[in-house]
Amino acid sequence: MNNKANTKPVVSTDSSATEADSRKSFYQTFSDCPVPPAEMLNNLGLFMRRQDLSRIMFMDELYKKALPVHGVIMEFGVRWGQNLALFSSFRGMYEPYNYNRKIIGFDTFEGFPSVSEKDGNNDVIKKGAYSVTEGYEHYLDSVLQYHESESPLSHIKKYELVKGDATATLERYLADNPQTIIAMAYFDFDIYEPTKICLELIKDHLTKGSVIGFDELNYHKFPGETLALKEVFGLDKYTIRRSPLSPLTSYIVIE
After folding, report:
1. How far apart are CA 95 and CA 239, in angstroms?
2. For a Cys staple, 206 with which of 124, 129, 150, 210, CB 3.0–4.6 Å?
3. What CA–CA distance (Å, rounded) separates 119 from 226?
4. Which CATH number does the domain 49-253 belong to among 3.40.50.150, 2.60.200.30, 1.10.3120.10, 3.40.50.300?
5. 8 A C-beta contact, residue 194 and residue 75
6. Cα–Cα distance, 161 to 70 (Å, whole number)
7. How confident is the model at residue 5 (pLDDT cuts 50, 70, 90)?
8. CA separation for the pair 176, 198 (Å, rounded)
9. How confident is the model at residue 19 (pLDDT cuts 50, 70, 90)?
10. d(CA 251, CA 64)
């Protein structure tokens, strides 16, 4: 797969013009990297920005919160799949023989299926935003297969990618798998309707200690996520926790 040119980057950022220009220059530095391909994977820390490392550390923190809880991990809004790969690695690090800890990602892989008035008027909020290259889910599947091969019990598949509008695919998944207990769910849909519907669908599959993470709560550019949480769980029943590692990401723990 090499159709990057056909995919326009979609980035909502609070960076200054100076920071944006500096990053453009650094992207070229990355492209020009003289490190041999065989050694590149071992040296990706060369290019990892403080913000990106902080996000990885937050995901690690979140995973550890869910460690003592039995059940699967779900991500709603996968896009390029970095979080799924991280969760797979964390499982291999912290609970390598827990083959019951399945990791399931839901995404259209075609961007937002629709938007509503409750999503505000940010320029990036439009149908089809945050799409990926055509057929990317197959490439991501091969990446996740590789990560699984680096951990014990690799003959047991412990991840699943569910393509389509999650408002429909999650309902089908839970109907087909009524035994599902959700130890952790991470929401990165950005928008109101799928977040609300999926929060409603997972409620009966949560247990005490289950962790629900959010990517954009209390963020004026993406109001829909907060409105969905407010309508489904309320804002006064659980402490909305944050980490000093990230200004936007947050989570609640079912108590």
Report:
1. 27
2. 210
3. 10
4. 3.40.50.150
5. no
6. 21
7. very low
8. 16
9. confident
10. 13
Average of pLDDT values for 152-158?
96
Query: Domain locations in the chain?
Result: 15-47, 49-253
Residue 95: how many other CB atoms lie within 10 Å: 14
Per-residue tokens: 52 = 């990106």
Contact assessment for residue 169 and residue 39, using Cβ atoms and an 8 Å cutoff = no
Q: How many Cα neighbours within 13 Å face the side chain of 195?
A: 30
Task: Report the alpha-carbon distance of residue 132 to residue 129 in Å, rounded.
Answer: 9
Phi and psi for 212 in degrees, rounded to 5?
A: -120, 115
Q: Where are the alpha helices (DSSP H) in 41-135?
A: 50-66, 82-94
> DSSP secondary structure string, 82-102?
HHHHHHHHHHHHH-TT-TT--
